[in-house]
Structure formats: C-alpha cells, structure tokens
Design a protein that fits this description.
heterodimer; A: 169 residues; mainly alpha; 6 helices; globular; B: alpha+beta; Immunoglobulin-like; 4 domains; six-stranded mixed sheet; elongated
Chain lengths: 169, 420
C-alpha cells in the first residue's frame, strides 16, 4: 500500500479560506474593530485546514464568531451580520469536514464530489434560514423591537435546549 | 452496522447561544437575528440521518492470472441500488495484504439512487492466490452529524503462478542415487570429464583406448570418465510465522525470497535430470514427494502458486515443531539431499538444519538475509544470525548467505569456497 497523506484536500482548504475571508470582509467593512478578531480567525482556519488540525479550525471559527459579535456591538446591520455568521459557519464546517475526509481517504484520493455536496448542503440550509429570518425581521421592523427580541430570545433558547436534549438523549 | 453520532456539531450551539445572548444583553436585534443561521444548521444536523449504503460492487481485473511482476489494473464500479441518495460516501477497497498498489484504492463520492461511480488502481502481482477483502463503505448524511459503516462483499480472486525459470544450477553434494544426472561423482564410468586411465582390459570399447599412449609406449590403456548421476533433492522452505521478515517494510519477506529461490532451484534441478520434491515448515501441511516429468512440474507450479503454506503473508494456525520434524523425517527418502530455504532468524531453524544433517541427509542452507542495521536491536539480530551461519558452517552444513539482489552471484561465490 502506498502511503497516504492524511491531510485535507486543496479544495477544502481553499473553500474554507474563501468563506472565512467573506466573513472577514462583511464584518470588517461594517466595523474595522472586527478585523482584530477576524484576521486571526482566517489565519487559524487556513492553517488548521492545511495542517489537518481540528483544534486550530475550531479556534478560527470561534474568532470569526467573535468578529461577528464585535461588528454587531458596533451597530452592524442585519444583512452584514447574517452574511458574516453564515460565512463563518460555512468556513468552519468545510474545514472540519475536509479534515475528516483527509483522515479517511487521504489527499491523493478523488474526493471533490463529497466536499462540494457537503458545502452546498450547509450553504443551502444557512441561506434559507438567513432569508426567512431576514424576511421576518424586516416585516416586524416597524413594531416593538425590544419585546419581539425578548420573545425571539426565549424561542431561540428553548429550541436550542430542546434540540440539544434530543441529540444527546 | 447501526449509525452513530460523529459529534462534529458539538460547540456550534454554544457559539450560537453566545451570539444570541450578546445580542439580547447589548440590545442588538440584528445580532440575535444572526444566531438564526447557527440554529438552522443545528436543527438540520439533528434531523439528518446517515443513510444505509445499499451498494452493488463489481471489481474487474485486467488479468486474473498474471505473471509475477505484472501490473494489473483493478477497476471497481460501485452502484447505489438503494432508494435514497448517499450524499457523503467514502469507499475503501479491501486490497489483499500481499499486493502493492500504485495509488489510493479509495474514493469519496456522492451517489443518487441508481447512479454509479468508478475508481481504479494498479497492483503489482506477486506469486500466490489473492482474495479481495470486502469493500468498506462509510456513509454520512449531508450534515455529517451521523455516520454508518458497512462492508460489502464482492468475491474477487487473482491467481498468480510463478514462471518456472531456472536459476544458475545449485551445486549439489556428493553421490545419492543411481540414475544418470548432473552430480559429478568420484566413480569412474561413462561421462564427459576426464577421470583417470587404467590398464586395458579385454572387452573395453575400442574408442576408449588411449591411442597416443599406445603410440608412445606400446601399452594399451583405457581412458575413464567421471560418471554423473542424478540426485534426489527435497526443497524445504521455512514458512513459519517468524520467517516472514524483511529488512524494510516494502521489501519482499524472507519466505517470498525463499520460495522464489526454490522455484528457480526446482526448475534447474529438474532440467538437470534430478528428482525434486518440495516441503515446508509451516502451520499448514505441505509435501510434494521427489519426482520428475511434466506432470510433476505442473503439480509443483500449482503448489508454488497457491499452496496456503507458501503464501506471501503468514498463514493461520499454530506450528507444531516436533510433529512437523518427525513427519518430515519419515517422509524424506533415505538418499535425499535437502536444500533448506530459511532466513535463520531463530535457533530453531539452525537446529532443523543440523538435525536433518544428523539423520544422514546432506543439507545445503540457502538463507535470504532479512536483517537490517538501522537500530542497535537490529544490529544485534544481524550478529546473532551471522553467528548461527558460522556455527552451521563449522558443523559441516553448507550455507549460502544471500544478502539481496539475485541469488546467482551468491551461488557462484559460495561454490568457489566449497570443495567436493
């Protein structure tokens, strides 16, 4: 058996860096302070994906999320934040998936198909959710934001908690 | 196999809650809105399930009965015969352990129902019968939150018989049988090589009379030639598990080299008119009594190709040393010489050689050297083996120490040292 290089493929790495840069661009344009978290985030995602390190990739994902939060605190618009969050999520997901594929199949194997299908699935789900969320947000924008936000929060926490319990149970 | 969680989304819900919570505390509705992306993906991962891979696997070899060293192209076609799509399918082919591939025997793909994917790789054929192991399919859902592993059987076998090509003729030892052959004896008689002259006796053929001498001295004398006789030889191959050793991971192991040398010796001896048999020290019984002729040659080719005792990877089962030796002793014809192919990696192999020698069979050990010198432990093993070789030589057993490359020059060198 010839030796396999158990690293993510170049496709995964470039897709992940592309998505991470998109997140950086969205948050950074909204508020330059977000660059402080976003730039190390892109670097971590890229390096982690190159070296096949899940820890680095997760750290990068967290940093990109931090960038989104900073941009949000600085008063970024919903479009910018949705784009930043979606791109950060896709970057982390593609990089982590690429590491798993590299572990199983190695760099020399033909794997473009599963990587593209996986990235497309995550992107599709994220875009649909962002679209619906944005539509609702615009629809209720004229009403009482604070009340709506509190109810939305209760809903989010309850849903995440429910999903979490079912996932572990 | 039942599906299990890959736990890859753990942590994302934490980040999602963090974004939402900061949004609430800082009164930034847009930030809370952004957390919906994470929420949707977590929900997707929760409902997503790894589909059962229902696959139809067919494997095609460009040549099912190649010669050793041939490159064989293997084409694997995998068809999704189930009802659902397989969005994340990783395929690992079960290449027989003895075969070397040129690239990965793997594929990552996504298959709609009814769709097929093909991948190929090349293997280098080595002697033996090779069965492919089941193809391993790892299936995940689109989100990758659940995983399922399946093994799909598709019986494929490659048989690779050695070509019986002769090596340089191995020097045999002394007189054993009464048939004409290639062992030069110290018995005067019909032959090719000059042996001696003796006084003419009535009835000696006229063309054997030494006429030069008659012209010189007036005395009649007869020229005698060295008689050549056939030997009965048993090729004994050490194929115990401990003999499956090689200097480096990708080198052929000592059993493979031993069998290769035995194949060459078998042909050379049989062509020379000797009677040749094959035996192995292995967990599985292996015995071909000495014989000659085309049938015997075909039987031996079959045995070298596919006998489980001589396979390029260690066989199953335990090796009972004393039983095997007793049985071998009973079977060896009284006049048989033994060519013992063993890496001599333990004292047992050396003891076997001396024991057979003591039973009255002439023994030549052909020893492929599997030792390396990269670590102190390996150097120690090399020294131990060298000591074993010299002890055997002192005890009167011939040893051909075969380091690497082809065996012919080693034979030349060894036979230059031997006398008689």
């Amino acid at each position: 058996m010839s030796d396999l290089t158990h690293r993510p493929s170049a496709l995964s790495t470039s897709l992940a860096v592309l998505a991470a840069s998109a997140s950086l661009l969205a948050t950074g344009l909204s508020d330059p302070a977000a660059l402080a978290a976003g730039v190390p985030g892109v670097a971590c995602v890229g390096a982690g994906s190159l070296r096949g390190s899940r820890r680095l990739v997760s750290l990068g994902g967290l940093a990109l999320t931090g960038g989104v939060i900073v941009a949000g605190l600085a008063g970024g618009g919903p479009e910018v934040l949705l784009l930043g969050a979606l791109a950060a999520l896709v970057a982390w997901d593609v990089a982590e998936h690429g590491i798993g594929v590299g572990d199983h199949l190695g760099r020399e194997t033909e794997t473009a198909r599963i990587e593209l299908v996986h990235a497309a699935a995550t992107l599709l789900v994220g875009v649909l959710a962002a679209g619906v969320g944005y539509g609702v947000y615009r629809g209720v924008a004229g009403g009482q934001p604070v009340t709506a936000v509190v109810f939305l929060l209760v809903g989010v926490v309850a849903t995440v908690a429910a999903l979490r319990r079912r996932a572990t149970g | 196999m039942s599906p299990f969680d890959t736990n890859r989304w753990v942590g994302v819900d934490g980040a999602t809650l963090l974004v939402g919570a900061v949004g609430v505390i800082a009164r930034r509705p847009a930030l809370l809105l952004a957390s919906i992306v994470g929420l949707a993906v977590i929900a997707f991962a929760r409902v997503d399930e790894a589909p059962e891979p229902t696959l139809d696997v067919s494997r095609e070899l460009s040549d099912e009965t190649p010669e050793p060293g041939d490159e064989v192209t293997v084409t694997v076609t995998v068809r999704n015969v189930g009802d659902g799509a397989l969005p994340d399918l990783r395929l690992l082919d079960g290449v027989p352990p003895a075969l070397e591939t040129d690239g990965p025997a793997r594929l990552g793909t996504a298959l709609r129902p009814g769709a097929a994917a093909t991948f190929g790789y090349r293997v280098t054929a080595v002697r033996g019968e090779h069965d492919w192991e089941p193809l391993r399919a790892i299936s995940r859902g689109a989100s990758g939150s659940r995983e399922r592993v399946a093994e799909i059987e598709s019986g494929t076998t490659m048989r690779c018989s050695p070509t019986l090509s002769a090596t340089a003729s191995l020097p045999l030892r002394g007189l054993t049988t009464q048939f004409a052959g290639r062992v030069e004896t110290d018995v005067p008689g019909p032959g090719l090589e000059f042996y001696a002259t003796r006084e003419y006796r009535r009835g000696d053929p006229v063309n054997r009379i030494d006429w030069n001498r008659y012209a010189r001295t007036g005395e009649l004398s007869t020229v005698q030639f060295r008689e050549e006789r056939a030997a009965s030889v048993v090729l004994l191959i050490d194929a115990r598990e401990s003999a499956y050793v090689a200097p480096r991971a990708d080198d052929p192991n000592a059993v493979e080299r031993g069998v290769d040398a035995a194949v060459g010796a078998f042909t050379a001896l049989l062509d020379g008119g000797d009677q040749v048999g094959v035996a192995a020290l292995a967990p599985t019984e292996c015995w071909l009594p000495p014989g000659a002729g085309a049938d015997h040659r075909a039987r031996a080719r079959e045995l070298f190709a596919s006998h489980p005792a001589l396979s390029p990877t260690p066989g199953e089962g335990r090796f009972y040393a004393s039983v095997a030796l007793r049985r071998l002793r009973r079977r060896l014809p009284a006049d048989a010489q033994v060519l013992f192919f063993s890496p001599l990696v333990d004292d047992f192999a050396a003891r076997v050689a001396r024991r057979i020698d003591a039973y009255g069979h002439l023994v030549t050990v052909v020893s492929p050297d599997p030792t390396a010198d990269s670590t102190p432990g390996r150097r120690l093993a090399r020294v131990e083996r060298a000591n074993r070789v010299s002890r055997l030589r002192r005890a009167g057993v011939r040893v051909i120490d075969w380091r690497d490359g082809t065996i012919d020059p080693e034979i030349e060198r060894a036979s230059a040292r031997w006398s008689g």
